[in-house]
Design brief:
Blueprint lengths: L13 H11 L2 E8 L6 H9 L9 H10 L5 E9 L2 E9 L14 H18 L14 E6 L8 H11 L4 E5 L7 H17 L14 H13 L2 E2 L6 E3 L5 E7 L2 E4 L8 H10 L2 H23 L16 H65 L1
Parallel strand pairs: 1-3, 1-4, 4-5, 5-6
Antiparallel strand pairs: 2-3, 7-8, 8-9
Keywords: Cell cycle, Cell division, Coiled coil, GTP-binding, Nucleotide-binding
GO cellular component, one term: cell cortex
GO biological process, one term: cell division
């Protein structure tokens, strides 16, 4: 039964109470960026939060990382404060992803990292004291697509399919200023077709049935996905005298916050301004619950999570060591056979010498016996 009161009793003030409670708490938000080296992941992170969160790229170190042939997971933590509200921000970078000729299982470290964060939170929930839970779960993943203008690569399709089952996936087209407006529109449509064909689940902001303006904003965000982005932390001057963040070219300036140039403002709105809580809630209610349900169905209480014993990062080194061991064994077997043949030849020679000595002894014994018989005959 629903009743409507004529005089206010204070129920409508409940959202304000919730706002005050949330303002006193510190929120946790974890953002993962995945993409090949050189697609502008670090620049975009610094552009999003208008601060130097991620350090600049050391190209010598990048070269050494490529020689290692391993996908790493780097974690950057910072605390942001705006209007007395604090957010514990965690950026998860993935250097080395997709940078090699053989990218087999390069997504495994990313999947393991996401599952490890779910496992850590699940372990904390099982403790008697849950008043100080540390939430390190990944709430959003920006997947950077190289601006080739063609379509998604097989590696992109495989990784996006696997990531979309565990995290809120948001595909972005890196360095959109390298494509013309027409080529960018065609490229976006090809990516959407591939996503639909392969059943890749990307994050969709909820559409509010009551607030039409909010619903229209959510539909505009979905129509722009995958977001075309331009990252820049430098201020440049346009031809009309404005100072904006962007990149300066001979033909003009590509502005970061100009919606006619890229979708940076829409991406920032989705991640920070309008749908950060939706990303956190969707992680809690959907991705984490799926992981929790799967783990509780497949293992007993208190048992550790079953992890792969085979580390794909060291497969090539393991195979090289196995080949080296096999070659060494073959070499030693060849040396053993030569030694065995030498021993057999030496044994045969010694046997022949023994037979010769034995024959000489027999002959000497016969001669001695003949001489003894001759001596007896003479005595008689």
């Amino acid at each position: 039964m629903t009743t409507t009161t004529t005089e206010p009793i204070g129920i409508s003030n409940l959202p304000n109470q919730r706002h005050r409670i949330a303002s006193r708490r510190t929120a946790n938000f974890t953002l993962m960026v995945v993409g090949e080296s050189g697609t502008g992941k670090t620049t975009l992170i610094n552009t999003l939060f208008r601060t130097e969160l991620a350090p600049g790229t050391n190209y010598a170190q990048r070269h050494m990382t490529q020689l290692d042939k391993a996908v790493e997971v780097d974690v950057i933590r910072a605390e942001l404060e705006e209007k007395q509200f604090r957010v514990n921000l965690t950026i998860v970078d993935t250097p080395g992803f997709g940078d090699y000729v053989n990218n087999r299982d390069c997504w495994v470290p990313l999947i393991d990292f996401i599952d490890d964060q779910h496992e850590s939170y699940l372990r904390q929930e099982q403790q008697p004291d849950r008043s100080h839970l540390i939430d390190t779960r990944v709430h959003a993943c920006l997947y950077f697509i190289a601006p080739t203008g063609h379509t998604l690569k097989p590696l992109d399709i495989e990784v996006m399919k696997r990531l979309s089952q565990r995290v809120n996936l948001i595909p972005v087209i890196a360095k959109a200023d390298t494509l013309t407006r027409r080529d960018l529109a065609v490229f976006k449509e090809r990516i959407r077709n591939v996503i639909r064909t392969h059943g890749i689940s990307v994050f969709a902001p909820p559409v509010d049935a009551i607030d039409e303006a909010s619903a229209e904003h959510a539909r505009a965000l979905m129509s722009s996905m995958p977001f075309s982005i331009i990252g820049s932390t430098q201020d440049v001057r346009t031809h009309d005298g404005r100072v904006v963040r962007g990149r300066e070219y001979l033909w003009g300036v590509a502005e970061v916050e100009n919606e006619h140039h890229c979708d940076f403002k829409k991406l920032r709105s989705l991640l920070i301004r309008t749908h950060m809580l939706d990303l956190i809630t969707n992680t809690e209610d959907f991705h984490y619950e799926n992981y929790r349900q799967t783990q509780m169905e497949t293992r007993k209480y208190g048992e550790p999570r079953v992890k792969r014993f085979e580390n794909p990062r060291f497969k090539e080194e393991e195979e090289a060591l196995r080949r080296k061991f096999t070659d060494q064994v073959k070499l030693e077997e060849g040396r053993f056979r030569q030694w065995e043949q030498h021993l057999i030849a030496e044994r045969d020679r010694l046997n022949k010498d023994l037979e010769t000595a034995h024959s000489a002894i027999k002959q000497l014994e016969s001669e001695i016996e003949s001489m003894q018989m001759a001596a007896r005959t003479q005595r008689r």
